[in-house]
Amino acid sequence: MQLGLVGLGRMGGNMRERLRRAGHEVVGYDRNPQVSDVASLGDLVGKLSAPRVVWVMVPAGVTEATIDELAGLMSEGDIIIDGGNSRFSDDRPRAERLGTKGIGYIDVGVSGGVWGIEYGYGLMVGGADEHVQRCMPIFESLKPEGPYGFVHAGGVGAGHYAKMVHNGIEYGLMHAYAEGYELLKASEYVDNVPGVIKSWREGTVVKSWLLDLLDRALDEDSELAGIRGYAEDTGEGRWTVEEAIRLAVPMNAIAASLFARFASRQEDSPAMKAVAALRFQFGGHAVKKD
């Protein structure tokens, strides 16, 4: 199958390679001319035979502008796929806008990171049945082998919604492993913390790919001394908690893991300053001065 792919960064570039290995013709465009197959979006569209399919894999801040530019170049019967980390609520307005021109729209939540080129990408897809079915050869080549790693989750917006929840769960899982690691490090009983983590990789109910990656990180730096305890969030965790509030769904672990990321960015927490001041005021407890 022929595909246009816009955005050839860490994931997009690897997706292009995985699809080419599977026999698909992929024309890629990126602002970096060293990795791009063509000089512009116009050149990319021009090299594709109608009806076209173009997959957009760019940062959220430029997704809208990229899709709008593509829409001005593409024709009725074409399909645009957004595989970036867009907010789910942007999808339906986008699909309606493209629909007035006869252009189909699919949203795809993509998981797999830099490992997807070898092991496949988890794909959560939203869109009309006819559009999804037309793109199935692409999805089949990107997903892992076997029965898992792909879902047509529902109509437009369902793919990005599923990916949002996936990433919210990821926040909670990562933080659970991180707290366990910290407790092991603090214990006077355990002498071989990396060994404990490694031992959990098989035969335990907590084994997972995330645990494998923590073990890999400890192999590279057993004390994690070269890493600062600062964690960004890319949006999905916040959106997941916002949806939990909207739908009155209790989400204690995911919310706590999101707030822990916020706390990681405070070298001297104003909230903890207030706690220390209150403890001194009501109980005369010692306060550490700068």
Summarize it:
With 290 residues, the chain is an alpha/beta fold. It has 13 helices and seven strands. The model has no long low-confidence stretch (mean pLDDT 93).
Describe the structure.
A seven-stranded mixed sheet has the order 2-1-3-4-5-6-7, with helices on both faces. The chain is elongated. The chain has two domains: 2-155, 3-Layer(aba) Sandwich (Rossmann fold); 164-265, N-(1-d-carboxylethyl)-l-norvaline Dehydrogenase, domain 2, CATH 1.10.1040.10. The chain is 50% helix and 12% strand. The chain has helices at residues 10-21, 41-46, 60-73, 91-99, 116-119, 129-134, 136-142, 158-186, 193-199, 209-220, 236-247, 252-264, 270-283, and strands at 2-6, 25-29, 53-56, 79-82, 104-111, 122-126, 150-154. By secondary structure, the protein is α/β, with parallel strands linked by helices.
What's the layout of helices and strands?
Elements (H helix, E strand, L loop, with lengths): L1 E5 L3 H12 L3 E5 L11 H6 L6 E4 L3 H14 L5 E4 L8 H9 L4 E8 L4 H4 L2 E5 L2 H6 L1 H7 L7 E5 L3 H29 L6 H7 L9 H12 L15 H12 L4 H13 L5 H14 L7
Parallel strand pairs: 1-2, 1-3, 3-4, 4-5, 6-7
Antiparallel strand pairs: 5-6
Pfam family, one: 6PGD
Organism: Planosporangium thailandense
Family: Belongs to the 6-phosphogluconate dehydrogenase family.
